[in-house]
Structure formats: C-alpha cells, structure tokens
Amino acid sequence: MNQIDSETVSFAPDDAVLVLEDGQVYVGDSYGAIGKTTGEIVFATGMTGYQETLTDPSYDRQIVVQTFPHIGDTGINREDPESSRIWVAGYVVRDPSPTVSNWRATGSLDDDLVAEHIVGISHIDTRKLVRHLRSAGVMRAGIFSGDALLDDEGRLKTVAALIDEVKATPQMKGLSLYDEVSTKETYTVGPCGEYEGKEPLYTVAAVDLGVKGMTPHRMAERGCRVHVVPSTITFEELTALNPDGVFFSNGPGDPEQADPEVELLRKVLDAGYPFFGICFGNQLLGRALGFGTYKLKFGHRGINQPVKDLTTGKVEVTAHNHGFAVDAPIGETVDAPFDNGHFGKVFVSHIDLNDDVVEGLQCVDIPAFSVQYHPEAAAGPHDAAYLFDRFVDLMKTSKEENRNA
C-alpha cells in the first residue's frame, strides 16, 4: 500500500505497519518475524547482495529499506554472510520473492528473518518512502505487527501511540555502538589463496569496530596474517602482537562518541605503525588528526557510488554504508589540526562525485591513510581493491626502512 495520511490511516490486526517519527504511515504485510522493532530508517540502493547487507554490523540498530523492488530470489546460503548474525533492526521490501532459485541456497530469506527474529514489512511503496527520506532525511521509525499493534486491552493502538513508541527510540547521533558489535575475543585469519600454508609476509592488527568478514580475507589474500582484536584492546596489548600494520574497521554509531578509539589511534600513529582505516576507521582517523565529523542527511548506502581518487584522477564505482562523514578541506594539503600539526600534513584523497563528501584521507608525513567506502566490496564492484595493495606496500616500505635503520 502507499503512504497514508496519519489522520485517516486504518489498519487491521493482521497488517504490518511502518511508522515514521514525522507521522508518515505505511500499511503492508508482515515479512520475517512478527512483533515490534524501532531504529533509524535508512535505504540501501544495491540491486544484489541483500545477504551481505543484512549481516553488515554497520547496520546495527537501523531499519533498512531496499530500493531494489524484488528481494529474496536467491534465498540465503552459508557462504555470503559478512558476520555471524543479521544486524539490521528491521527490514523493508516491496516484493519478496515467493520462491527461491539458486544452486547455493540453503533456505529462504523469509525463514532466516524469522529464525533471527528480524521484524519486517513488505508490499509497500518503497519508491515513495525513499523519495521522502531523501527530501526529509533519515529519521527514527518503527515496524509493528501482530500483538505489537494492540494495547493492553487488546484494541488496536492509535497512530499517535505508535509514533510515541518511535520517538522513545534513541537517535543515531550521539550513540556509541562499536563495542556492541565488536568481537569479544581475538581471532586470527591466516594467509590464503596462493599464500595458504606459507609464512605470512606481514602481520596486521585489525581493530574490530564492526568489521565485515571479507575485509581480513582481502588482506589474507595478499599474504597477511590478520589478528582481529576487540575494540577494547589496549595499546600495550596491540603492540604485543608485533604488527607490521594496524587497521581500523567499519562500524556503526556516531564517531564523536568514540574517544577511547581516537586516543588508541593517536598512540598508533605516534608509534609509527602503518595505518589503514575503512568507513568508521576513516572517521576516526579524521578525528585523530583533529578534524570534525558530521551526520549526513540520508547517508550513502549501496554498491553503486561514484568516487574519484584525487591522487590518480581515476573514478571508481564503490560500495558504501555510512551516515557520518569527515569535515576536511578538499583540494589542498593542510596541517592536521590536532595539537598544532602534531601529525604533519594531510589531504583529502577521495571524494564522492554525487555530493563532494570526503571519501578518503592521506597523511603526508606519517604512514597513514583511510577511505570512507568499502573496498572489500562484498557484494559489489572490485574497483577499489587496490587499496589493500597500498596498505601492503606501506607495510613493506616501513619494514624495509626499519631493517635499514
């Protein structure tokens, strides 16, 4: 069904109802689990890769709207997840596939959503919804079905009551979520592919702030041994791993609420470790260097975002998932603001061609760089895979310099 004016909306106990905090209401069918969920509602523009989207920890506490209308055709399998569970708070699709057709499928998406208690809604006008979010900005929302639509006396709740439940949900700005999604124990991903069974070329300490499974795999493909460590790791524990480089992953929440990670990163940079950051890691590098961060109106989420590498002039089609960005000057090399240029000079290395949002930072005087998007690209294009080669080259150069020192 289309969006209905909240003053005239009607729904039945067997409906699913999506309510936005600004009063818009969408009535459709339940999809996945029955119940209630609330969170920040965002949209993802990928035509493929719904399983990777659902299991990306950066979607923690977010209700995801798929702009591609037909979802679930290929079911689910046990090879594509980016983590051990589904992280989205809720799921909104237009037309769920009634059948599954793929040789790798082990089940249906609907059954997986039910098994993991993910409340969703289907058969609403997702195009209208996304157009609204693009103009009004992302906001809090809730999906209600089954008993969640009824009050204590068994009567249907009013729209006003549902909106009140939505507004009781914390806003994304101001939330610290990276500890919530991080691994609790260190685990190691060994060299794979042509390097499998061989001594690692380099050792990476990867701080898990919501890491996707493909990220350490991309490093392992290049001969790295990757220790994926909890967000709570201390600098002393990190150095005990004797890493050749340090990586900060993607993750959910507001980067302004990550002071402990910023302090850890400053110690990493002071110690001279080659550093690479992705997404949340890019935002934390920006903050460590003294730049601010801000919340985007509706963010970048999908596998079709054009980014220009200002160091080469090349344009990449990239995978994104972020709602915050770094506030840094484009087109000039500047002193990093922190502590009167303590970390030397830095420049913006990548920009989004849709809106000129900062998509990468490159330090000049220390071995550190980062990007806002996802070069591991699962699912998505592989245009940005070279960034892992840059990180390996950075570790190689640093190792040779230390050997010759």
Name its key features.
405 residues; alpha/beta; seven-stranded mixed beta barrel
Q: Please describe the biggest sheet, giving its number of strands, its sense, and whether it closes into a barrel.
A: 11 strands, mixed
β-strand number:
21
Could you tell me how far the N terminus lies from the C terminus, measured between alpha carbons in angstroms? 69 Å
**Range of helix content:** 10-25%
Number of DSSP helical runs: 10
Overall average residue pLDDT: 96
By secondary-structure content and strand pairing, the structural class works out as alpha/beta
DSSP strand content? 25-35%
| Radius of gyration using CA atoms only | 22 Å
Would you kindly provide a written description of the structure presented here, covering whatever features stand out?
With 405 residues, the chain is α/β, with parallel strands linked by helices. Helix content is 22%, strand content 30%. It has ten helices and 21 strands. The chain has helices spanning 50-54, 109-115, 126-136, 159-167, 178-181, 214-220, 235-239, 259-270, 280-288, 386-404; strands spanning 3-4, 16-20, 25-32, 36-44, 62-66, 70-71, 90-92, 95-96, 119-122, 139-145, 187-189, 202-207, 224-229, 245-248, 275-278, 292-309, 315-327, 333-335, 345-352, 358-363, 368-371. The strands form three sheets. Strands 11, 12, 13, 14, 15, 16, 17, 18, 19, 20 and 21 form an eleven-stranded mixed β-sheet that branches. A seven-stranded mixed β-barrel has the order 2-3-9-7-5-4-10. Strands 6-8 form a two-stranded parallel ribbon. Helix 1 (50-54) links the parallel strand 4 and strand 5 (62-66). It is globular, with a radius of gyration of 22 Å. The mean pLDDT is 96.
